[in-house]
Amino acid sequence: MQTPPITEIATGLRFPEGPIAMDDGSVVLVEIARGTLSRVTSDGAVSVIAELGGGPNGAAIGPDGKCYVCNNGGFVWHERGGRLYPGEAPPDYSGGRIERVDLETGAVELLYDNCDGEPLRGPNDIVFDAAGGFWFTDHGKTGPRQRDRTGVFYAHSDGSRIEEKLFPLEGPNGIGLSPQEDALYVAETLTGRLWEWRLSGPGKIIAERRDRPDGGRLLPAPPGYLLYDSLAVDAAGRVCVATIVQGGISIIDPATGNTDHLPLPDPLTTNICFGGRDLGTAYVTLSSTGKLVSFPWPGPGLALNFLNK
Questions:
Q1: Scanning 45, 75, 197, 199, which has the fewest C-beta atoms within 10 Å of its C-beta?
Q2: 3-state helix, strand, coil in the chain (%, to 5)
Q3: Structure pTM?
């Protein structure tokens, strides 16, 4: 897929991820290395909504209009050749958490930091379903000679219930729902795999025992060495996965098995969301170079619950 003309909206961001295209034309995103939830206006101005600390990662708007943030607990950061890279857990790492932020006041609430007594390690990406619950991945943390075994969770937005739904996965990262919300998509980073699970309702996985014991279906991938980060789904049902190393957006059609790849100028292309008129604009974080960019997408993105309405 040929790269379209790219517009640089903002530069100098500190490892941006989790973009949300708001109805007022701004983009709310996290700056992981800065520890903030920030807002970027259409003229490129950046303002801090909330100081979160740790490592704010994926973000989504909930049924109450507040922003729900996966906080991975932070990284040790490395700068090489003018680019910023995340490393291992920092010395002050105290665990992962799900936080809720009031976009008007910047007030921050802790929603979850464990599931049945098992601490969250590195919550990464999040998506809300129409019922108001949310799915999120826990990517885990890495040390000098060990890496966490982690999974996927479903939780209620009022803080009343959290359940581990899939375990173990290899560094689960991006997560999304099909247009009919009858399928869940999860991208594993280090394996470069995209999985699909069928759903029978909110938070309910159908274990169909196809490619693996827990019932997931392995979807095809573009050729070559690639790692997967976060994802979004477009209105046609194609899964659009931000791709590392082979920097860009990998596009997978679960119905046909067709794949494509849109190259972008950062090996750490980490997130994509859709916004603008008719949801026809892709907003993408080029994280190692600290940029938020946009470009036209061939067809509309999928409207998100509690946003784009």
A1: 45
A2: 0, 50, 45
A3: 0.96
Within-domain flag for 42: yes
Count of Cβ atoms closer than 10 Å to residue 92 Cβ: 9
Residue type, position 25, single letter: G
For residue 55, give the nearest of 88, 32, 76 by alpha carbon: 32
Can you give the pLDDT of all 309 residues of the chain as single tens digits? Answer: 888 899 999 999 999 999 999 999 999 999 999 999 999 999 999 999 999 999 999 999 999 999 999 999 999 999 999 999 999 999 999 999 999 999 999 999 999 999 999 999 999 999 999 999 999 999 999 999 999 999 999 999 999 999 999 999 999 999 999 999 999 999 999 999 999 999 999 999 987 555 565 678 999 999 999 999 999 999 999 999 999 999 999 999 999 999 999 999 999 999 999 999 999 999 999 999 999 999 999 999 999 999 965
Round to whole Å and give the CA distance between 50 and 254.
37
DSSP state of 6: -
Q: Establish if 33 belongs to a structural domain.
A: yes
Q: Which two tokens stand for residue 2?
A: 């040929």
Q: Which domain does 190 fall in, by range?
A: 7-296
What distance separates the 2 farthest-apart alpha carbons in the chain? 49
Q: Determine the Cα–Cα distance for residues 308 and 233; give it in Å rounded to an integer.
A: 14
Rounded CA separation 233/9 (Å) = 22
Helix (H, G, I), strand (E, B) or coil at 278: helix
* Neighbouring C-beta atoms of residue 140, cutoff 10 Å: 24
User: Residue 108 and residue 52: Cα distance in Å, rounded?
Assistant: 8
CATH of the domain at 172: 2.120.10.30
In a domain, 224, yes or no: yes
Residue 45 has a CB neighbour count (10 Å cut-off) of 11
Query: Residue 52 corresponds to which tokens in the numbers above?
Result: 């979160």
Q: How many domains, the chain? A: 1
